[in-house]
Amino acid sequence: MFIDIENALEKKISQIASTEDPAHDLLHFKRVVKIAKEICIKENAKMEVVVPAAWLHDFVIIPKNDPRRKEASQLSADEAIRFLKELSYPEIYLEEIGHAIAAHSFSANIETKTLEAKIVQDADRLDALGAIGIARCFATAGILKTSFYSEIDPFCENRKIDDKFFTVDHFFAKLFKIAETLKTESGRIEGFKRVKVMKNYLKDLADEIQ
After folding, report:
1. Which of 60, 89, 92, 147 could connect to 76 by a Cys-Cys bridge, CB 3.0–4.6 Å?
2. Fold of the domain built from segment(s) 128-210
């Protein structure tokens, strides 16, 4: 039965996932689900909550530069619960799934009150880090038309961080901070590895542009 549910979730998300934004395409959802499952097993959490929440965490996609961005996770939670009810998903898990979806967002700033919510949040945030995180960051920069870096001070050493104009600034403005917010032990271990990848990338970038 769970396999059938997952197939239904993936089919639905394949219709919703962005085809114009590589940072939020179907592959993003698949990666988040994969990471969430791995952490779920390590942390001995409820897969019945984690998996649907991971698949549906961005059920309503709102662009990063949209003023409604902070509402996206709650809108996603509401729509996800409606969809799961259509699938006759067990009622006992719906409240926890809704909370995990609503609380996963960085911009929503909702406290994660369950282990499952922490796992879904960690999984989504881990996909913003490491090699894939670098790729997603620059993909978003292409959409928002921001420069790769500041020619005068590429790594914000003597100026205010401004990721509205410079892509590399986003590493310092948000991505490295995200790594510090990971809630599970498994997530933190993986996050440390991914941040190391990103810092090594910045060192290589410095060698090439300075």
Report:
1. 60
2. Hypothetical protein af1432 (1.10.3210)
Q: For position 87, what pLDDT does the model report?
A: 94
Question: In sequence order, what are the beta bridge partners of 166?
Answer: 147
Q: Report pLDDT for 19.
A: 76
- The helix/strand/coil state of 165 is coil
Of 169, 123, 143, nearest to 28 by C-alpha is: 123
Residue 189 CB contacts under 8 Å (≥ 6 apart), including other chains: none
Kindly tell me if the per-residue pLDDT of 2 is higher than 80. Answer: no
What are the phi and psi torsion angles at 108 (to 5°)? -70, -30
Question: Where does CATH 1.10.3210.50 sit in the chain?
Answer: 1-115, 128-210
What is the chain's length? 210
Domain 1-115 has CATH 1.10.3210.50: yes
Q: What's the pTM value of the predicted model, to 2 decimals?
A: 0.91
